[in-house]
Amino acid sequence: MKANDEVKNILMNDWDPIGIKANAKAKAEYDQYALRIVGMLYNGTTLDKLVKYLDSVVTEDLGLPSNRNKSIEVSKKLLAINL
Fold it and tell me: Per the confidence metrics, is the pTM higher than 0.85?
C-alpha cells in the first residue's frame, strides 16, 4: 500500500472528526490533509508537529473542538507508516 493510501485509511478510519467513514461518497473528504501529512512524514516530522497539524485542522478548518488525545493516537499511527 502506498504511503498516501495508508494515511488516507488512517484519517478515515481512526481520525474522522466529522464522522463520515460510513458514507462511501465521502471517501475523498480527507485527501487534502493526507497529501500534507505525507509530505510532513517524508520530511521527518515529529509527533508534536503532527498533533498540532491535526488539531489545527479540527479546530480551524472544521470548526470543531479539539480532541488532543485522538490527535496523539492518530499521529502515532501515522508516524508508524513504513515509507
Answer: yes
